[in-house]
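go over whats below:
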Amino acid sequence: MNAKEKVERWIRPSILASSAYKVPASAGLIKLDAMENPYPWPEEIKQAWLDELRSVDLNRYPDACPERLKGHLRQIMKLPPSMPILLGNGSDEIIQILALAMAQKDRVFLAPEPGFVMYRVIAETAGARFIGVPLREDFSLDRDAMLKAVQQHQPALVFLACPNNPTGNLFDQDAIHAVTRAAPGLVIMDEAYYAFAGKSFADYLGQYDNLLVMRTLSKLGLAGLRLGLLAGPDCWLHELEKVRLPYNINSLTQKSVEFICQHYQILEQQVQQIRQDREKMLVSMSNLPKIHVWPSQANFILFRVLGENAGFVFTGLKMRGILIKNLHGSHAMLQDCLRVTVGTEEENSRFMDALAEVAG
């Protein structure tokens, strides 16, 4: 038996049939494809941060339960002091922890779609059955369809992203409350983009015994550090901590996040700038006759190319040095759709000029 035959024998069939998540090369391009904060730290802050890192003992394991860091995060993110926090290597690892803890052969994970692709990928990798509930044509949450799916499938886990990725919109709060009340298992409010919307369900933690709130620092400007968190009732997090790998948050990430928490106003100012620039981009893009733009409460904008192939526009932008996300083919509702991250003023201007050339 050769190596290929051994792989086919021992790797799970569901993995063999799946595809790896691919991140495109971006060297030499204006990178507007991954919802990153485009702004670096001021030089004096960067130097002070580097000085702090000198104190990290790299020969020692990181703090396995960094309570001081959790306290900083609870404060800057305005999370209830009574709610424990679980830390993950980005929100992806938190989704994986949830899946490993809750997935069984006949259990269902459920989320509206189009949505964050990793809900489905991780659920199916862990062995759960994933059910996607279509959003309405305007990408709003279909309350009746969600409640019907909850009743029919009795999901162990429901993911609700607010604002939603890749559509950028907030879901109706009454609909979210109704789904949370109806859900027999956990409801995860994914608030990766909450800072750009100014809305959060954190105030409802504890009011629902099945509600957890998930956040990440990646969109705020710390994507390279990979830190996410999950907050909610202790009875849930106590069990989920059993699945979390020890030392999953490295020492440099812990020290760096503790440092920037002391200078959080920098990130807040950058978020405010991104929100202002987002509104300018929405207006400018709406003025292009071949572009249909959806409102956004996140740091990115979803748009559809009218009368042109999305792949043609995507390639045309890339040839002009602009990398965005091509969503065509990822979901039936995203035909000829592209997603652009809000960048710096100069990056946004170059994107708009290139878009006008290609699809104007």
User: Anything to note?
Assistant: The radius of gyration is 21 Å. The first strand starts at residue 30 and ends at 31. Residues 3-42+265-359 form a domain with the Aspartate Aminotransferase, domain 1 fold (CATH 3.90.1150.10). The chain has a mean pLDDT of 95.
